[in-house]
């Protein structure tokens, strides 16, 4: 519990301007010693910028305002300066070297060495101690690429601890984690708190914030709106935080929608997929499912359940090897062995990883919009640029993508707006079946609502929609029917009326006997 | 083209009060296009420097003609190289391919009694076949292009030495004129100026004006960002003046319009169009920008890669013909370091080291910078070893400027 002495960190009147944009405007943040302090805000509100100011990514002099840490005004010029004072930031994208061992990663840039020669005994022993402290049951010499993303997150924390961290900053630490790993991480934060380590956590997941934070500062449009004490007289509800984040009431988090379900469009039967590099490993095991026109079907599952692998293998065998099983479109068996054939057959897949598999970030909006079906606006291989602009602009308006024009680089857009470009691309391809993999990952609450509305509109226009999501409330909120996957198999299917988080979770954790992995 | 009616008053388009469509102040606009203008500025500064340093020798009409003829192979090769690099590959073999194809071209004409026009066509096709060989390994087997073309560098040099052996000389003068000759002065002279050259220059200037006004009108009609009107007009004035000056120089030269400049000009226009306006071009940029995303958008990446190398081979075939014609003989040692010239031109011209970004016109400017350096240093009697040192430093400086400029922009 936060004690009443001076705060460990005070940021006063922080203003940070980029050419043409005021990213932060007179932001105040006060963090008490030993607390878990959450920072909430929509994407693009300025949370990450604020943390970059604090950690010295933006050096002193490039912003206005004061940073007072442990009573001293700090002028960090690099992240090294802030780390020396005990402020360590763990970024959304993990900064680990996959081919190095856990121990090497922990002490990277901070090696246990004498005269430039590494002391391996000390390295591994201290790493083992740190791993024990964070409750990670792995050997220090295991390569980082051989452990899951949840454990990698813990290695990052171990690395921070090795630097004698006093203030730990986590930027969206659970965004890529499944529920189990997330729970473990939160538990770890609690025990670190017991050791006296203060943390700042940036998160979109309000239930997590409610569970762990002692106080929550809300940032909206580059300004600090308010700081809520989470353990005050009256409990702070999620809706209360959302209202403050978006500056308006969100009556419902999911739009009302009644689907008009038509004929079956896509069906797969006995679909089995093997790992691309290890043909003996079964990733999707004898899966069967169908989706009808106007229907929104969800696929629930924990990380590694095979949801993305299933979707991508259906999308023109873009994942996996040794794929067997039948695929029917409108009841007729079809064979679709590459992505362009899948697109021609009216299947679209919007990836869960926009930045790496979805968008060409150095290209502009219009070219990203038309990328999947250039033939539609081309004659004899020559693209009609005027038509392209018109089309991209129509999607910009329909989707309410926030951008001055369609020749803006996609890399400069916020997550929500990038996702709208991804959706524009796949709508432009005019699919009948639209597979959306984590369509709202890393997107703020307001934009999520808009994405849901777009999904509903798609279903209303007669498209068959499959939504893969790790957020069960989201699936329950928008889907007509939900499949659950576990260990590559489809373990259950529930209509919306009968589905609950608990029910789905039971299917999602169902073990199979004689599992191959 | 009624240019006057399409003249957009600078204040008329942002009538909505949004300044996002009009590029803001001139200074801001120049800042955003710094790289592009820095390259052109560098070219101008280097040229003027040598012009003064050599007391005007640099820009004598006949020197300008030989600058174009000497560097024709770089212009041709760098077109293909930009495309390869934008897609995220590299081609180290083009110098050896030039020697191999050029050698076979010489053999075809001198020993196999094939007429030279047919030999030219067959040589370009042979280049394409060589490209298909390399493209096969890169695209369908998945060997990195660096390795395949490193192998190709040895392979085709070896074949060239084996088949061409000593020099195959005595090529017909009509053939040699492809590289060294000029268009016939069939329209007579205006004073001292070759009329054919003047006509072509005028057409080029007109073409520039028409295409620029069209593009601008299209942008404004769609409410897209345009450069400030002052910059637009300034650019056109400079462009027309440059074409005019070059035309004047060429028309004053001994021969008139070099044939090879026509070849290069057509290739530059054709490939700029391919890169900007065709699906194939789009797919190249898409793959260089984000390969997995391009795959998942249905781009047939293997086919694009294959075609890229076939295309590079075809252009290497053209370059081989020009190189052989320029020398008047086929030599197994031809084309030494041509790959480095082409790669350097592409990078100096602003092609991104990691792919995804690059323009053919930029690479041509890069090639011109290197060419002017070559010629200027030679005229001023700088020793070849120091020429190499200087060119190496220029390459590093150009890419460093690019990277620092990008960092500053963030």
UniProtKB/TrEMBL annotation, chain A:
Family annotation (PROSITE patterns): ABC_TRANSPORTER_1 (PS00211), ABC_TRANSPORTER_2 (PS50893)
Keywords: ATP-binding, Cell membrane, Membrane, Nucleotide-binding, Repeat, Sugar transport, Translocase, Transport
GO molecular function: ATP binding; ATP hydrolysis activity
Name of the protein: Monosaccharide ABC transporter ATP-binding protein (CUT2 family)
Chief location bin: membrane
Subcellular location: Cell membrane
UniProt keyword annotation of Metal-binding present: no
Keyword Cell membrane attached: yes
Membrane-related topology note: Peripheral membrane protein
Organism of derivation: Actinoplanes xinjiangensis
From TrEMBL, chain B:
Low complexity bias spans: 1-17
Keywords of this entry: Cell inner membrane, Cell membrane, Membrane, Sugar transport, Transmembrane, Transmembrane helix, Transport
Pfam families: BPD_transp_2
Membrane spanning stretches: 34-52, 72-90, 97-114, 120-139, 146-166, 186-209, 229-250, 256-274, 304-325, 360-380
Location of region: Disordered: 1-22
One cellular component term from this protein's GO annotations in UniProt: plasma membrane
GO molecular function, one term: transmembrane transporter activity
Major location (coarse): membrane
Protein role: Part of the binding-protein-dependent transport system for D-xylose. Probably responsible for the translocation of the substrate across the membrane.
Protein name, as recorded: Xylose transport system permease protein XylH
Organism: Actinoplanes xinjiangensis
